[in-house]
Amino acid sequence: MTMPDDVRLLTEELARDPNSLAFVTLGEALRRQGQLDMALKVTLRGLARHPYLPDAHDLGARICVDRGEIERAFEEWDMVLTLAPGHLGALKGLGFVCFHRERFADAERYLSAAAAADPQDEQVERALRHVRTARADGWTEPLAHALPASLMDDSRYLFVNVLNEEGQTALLLDRDGLVLAGAYVGADGKDVAQEVGAELSGVTEAARRTTRHLSMGDWTSIVFETEVAVVAMAPSQHDGLLVLATSRATPLGLVRRLLDKCSDRAGRWLEERV
Amino acid sequence: MATPFTHMLQSLARQRGVIAALVISERDGIVIDSYVQVGHSADRVAALAAKLFRKARLSAGAAGLGAVSFMQLEAQSGRICAAGAGDQVIVILAESGINVGLVRGELLRSAAEIGALDGQGFR
């Protein structure tokens, strides 16, 4: 991993020569350090000077994925392929995005091209097998295995193999309302998981008090319908909380089944780590 | 004495498993009208349900999800369902085995009626 010293050196190089291509390395270093806003800023500044540099757009796409901005990532990778047809990173990235949207035919097309570009890439080969299985079965359970390596261990994608439709998202919060896993992508495409989680976790204390005073036993779920979403919550291990949000169009019965599935997924994930 | 809410509450109370049906003020948890089976305190249910609904409404608003129209709390041995109509909330306390679909439909219809009554000055 690039160390802070390297970030400093690259920053100095860019200060000396604003036209330097060092912005790609610097942006990648910042991304790996989790400084996503700064990484995006550096990348966008670099792209302003080098708008036709495929690797810079590829970096921009990966930063967008890290920020939960999948739509924007798609556009960036699409630009990469316009500039450099056959770009391996873009083919893999677009394969992932299309799989995420259940556009299996497109996912297969991108991943097949990626496999042709690099036949030795086992990750692409594995992802391609899963896409073909999904196309044949209409089943998306193995999606996690089809994610790019950089995302496979990313807890923000914990529920992607359970939630299949646009507008469905889930969060796992700890007892303090902090996000353990999952993502909440707002209307502007940004991940606002922490803010939403903090607000919604406050409902559980009111639920606990209500069930205790009315002798109803422990609460098992809360569902509320709002103007824009259906939100369902269930207690999780270690006093945690699972929050699921779906579009208003999702039937309540399906919301409940999705909540159960997410609970199972979260339970298994926590057991592997505790 | 019959109130504008009596027929709504009677209709809800007829649903199998419903223990209490109330129209309450969300702001202060005060009972406006209620049907409650013997052995249950309308005031207690109202206060707790109002607080829960208010918390859900504020949290959803802060999270950018908009106004809450319906809420359901499920516990090991019972449920609370509520629908909002302005400052007023219509609430039921019920056993676990109720038909939630029926109750939800009834609550949302009642909430719409309360909203209409509000518009006519019945507050």
Count of discrete domains of chain B: 1
Please give the radius of gyration of chain B in angstroms: 13 Å
> What's the helix count of chain B?
3
Question: What is the CATH architecture assignment of chain B?
Answer: 2-Layer Sandwich
H/E element sequence of chain B:
HEEHEEEH
Percentage beta strand of chain A = 5-15%
Mean pLDDT of chain A: 82
Given helix and strand content, the structural type of chain B is: alpha+beta
Count of DSSP E strands of chain A? 5
Which strand order does the major sheet of chain B show? 2-1-5-4-3
CATH architecture of the largest domain in chain A: Alpha Horseshoe
Order of helix and strand elements from N to C terminus of chain A: HHHHHHHHHHEEHEEEH
Distance between the termini of chain A: 27 Å
Given the helix and strand composition of chain A, which structural class is it? Answer: alpha+beta
Biggest sheet of chain B, open or closed, and with what strands and sense?
Answer: 5 strands, antiparallel
Question: What can you see in these coordinates?
Answer:
The complex is a heterodimer of chains A (274) and B (123). Chain A has 274 residues and is of the alpha+beta class. Chain A has 12 helices and 5 strands. In chain A, helix 5 (70-83) packs antiparallel against helix 6 (88-100) and helix 7 runs antiparallel to helix 8 (122-137). Chain A starts with a helix and ends with a helix. Chain B has one domain: Beta-Lactamase, CATH 3.30.450. Chain B has helices at residues 6-13, 42-62, 100-119; strands at residues 18-25, 31-36, 68-75, 78-85, 88-94. Chain B is globular, with a radius of gyration of 13 Å. Chain B is built from 3 helices and 5 strands. Chain B has a 5-stranded antiparallel sheet with strand order 2-1-5-4-3, sandwiched between helices. The chains are: A alpha+beta (274), B alpha+beta (123). At the A-B interface, helix 11 and strand 3 of A face helix 2, strand 3 and helix 3 of B.
